Amino acid sequence: MNEAGFLKASKEERLSISADRESTRKVVSSSPEETESLGERLAQKLSPGAIVALLGELGAGKTCFVRGVCRGLKVKERITSPSFIIINHYRGTLPVYHIDLYRLKGPQEFLFLGCEEYLFGEGVTLIEWAEKAEPYLPPETLSVSMRIIDETKRELSFSREPW
Ligand SMILES: Nc1ncnc2c1ncn2[C@@H]1O[C@H](COP(=O)(O)OP(=O)(O)O)[C@@H](O)[C@H]1O
Ligand SMILES: [Mg+2]
C-alpha cells in the first residue's frame, strides 16, 4: 500500500495487525543468540519497504532481535537501543530505520515526530514498542510479539509465516 492508499484506508484495515495476533506462528528461543539468529533469518525475507513491529515488555528481547535483523542485512554499526533519540538510521544491504517508541506519550506523537514517513520509504523499518503506534501501522506490517517465559526463554509470535 502506498501513502495515499494508507491515508484512505479505513481504521479497521489499519488495525488488522491486532486481529492477526490470533493466528500466529510461534517459536521459542532459548538464548539471546538464538533470538538474534531468528532475526538474522527473517532479514533474508525482508524487501524494501518492509515493516516489522516488535511488541512486548522491557527485556523481552526486541533489541536483541533487531540486532539479528541488522546482522542479516550486513549493517556494520553497533546496534544500541534508541530509547532517547527514537530513531536510529543504519546502512546495510538496505537502509534500516530502527525506531523505539518506549518514550512516546501517545499515538498522535508518532505522527507529530514524522515517524510515518519511514513506513513508506525504501528501507526496512523495525519498530520497538510498536503497540504505541498501532493505529498507524499498515496491514502488511509483520508483527512479532515477544513474551518472557523465564530468564533465558522467550516466546516469539509472528503475525504470519515469517520465512
Ligand atoms: N532467549 C532470549 N532472547 C532474547 N533475550 C534474552 C533471552 N534470554 C535472555 N535474554 C536477555 O534479555 C534481555 C533482552 O534485552 P533487550 O533485547 O534489550 O530487550 P527489549 O529491547 O525487549 O527491552 C537481554 O539482557 C538478554 O541477554
Ligand atoms: Mg529495546
Characterization of this structure:
This protein has one domain: 3-Layer(aba) Sandwich (Rossmann fold). Helix content is 27%, strand content 23%. It is globular. Helix 4 (32-43) crosses helix 5. Helix 6 links the parallel strand 4 (95-100) and strand 5 (124-128). With 163 residues, it is α/β, with parallel strands linked by helices. The protein binds adenosine-5'-diphosphate and magnesium ion (MG). Adenosine-5'-diphosphate is lined by residues 29-32, 34-35, 56, 58-64, 81, 128, 152-154.
List the helices and strands and how they pair.
Layout (H helix, E strand, L loop, with lengths): L2 H6 L2 H4 L1 H5 L4 E5 L2 H12 L7 E5 L6 H11 L14 E5 L3 E6 L6 H6 L11 E5 L13 E7 L5 E5 L5
Parallel strand pairs: 2-5, 2-6, 4-5
Antiparallel strand pairs: 1-7, 3-4, 6-7
Helix pairs in contact: 4-5
The structure holds adenosine-5'-diphosphate (ADP) and magnesium ion.
Shape: globular
Our estimate of the beta-strand percent is 15-25%
Query: Structural class per helix/strand content?
Result: alpha/beta
Give helix % range.
Answer: 25-40%
Largest sheet: 7 strands, mixed
- State the order of secondary-structure elements, H for helix, E for strand: HHHEHEHEEHEEE
Number of strands: 7
Q: Look at the structure and give the CATH class.
A: Alpha Beta
Distinct ligands: adenosine-5'-diphosphate, magnesium ion
Number of helices: 6
According to CATH, the fold-level topology is: Rossmann fold
User: Separation of termini?
Assistant: 21 Å
Runs in which pLDDT lies below 50 for 5 or more consecutive residues are 14-20
- Please identify which CATH superfamily we are dealing with: P-loop containing nucleotide triphosphate hydrolases
Main sheet strand line-up: 1-7-6-2-5-4-3
How many domain units?
A: 1
